[in-house]
Amino acid sequence: MGLSKFTNKKEWNLTKTVLPQHTDHAGVMWHGSYFNFLEEGRIDALNKIGITYSMLSEKGYEIPVISAQIKYKISFSHGEKIFLKSKFNLVNKIRLNCKTLFLKVNGDIGAEALIELVLVRKDNDSIKLVRQVPPEIKNVFLRLVEGPKT
Known about the structure:
This protein has helices spanning 31-48, 53-58, 135-146; strands at 12-17, 61-62, 65-72, 81-91, 95-103, 109-118, 120-123, 126-129. It is α+β, with helices and mostly antiparallel strands and 150 residues long.
């Protein structure tokens, strides 16, 4: 999960606070909460380019996770701020990867994640992998890869 292939792209930022519902009985952020933050980060990036996930769904598209890797390095505690820095990468023209760093206030990496996504089309009761991404959706993916406009 090296950072090398992500270093030339802009990053999407999201700030979160660890709340009681994100922690275990010891007040440490529960491992499953990381996935919720990752999802929120991806949805937030879409919103920032003017596309809501529900808009994609209404057009019959979904972007499910096909693989998730998280390396936990330093735990987060109740009340702590977390800075998520995410970068997208388009792979093989049909897979979208999202690399996210969970940073502490001092800049230390608390965790890093690599999420792999694909585009699928929902028709009635079937779900099919989209192998030829339509131009309008490819443009969405490319805008995510470019990062936020500064």
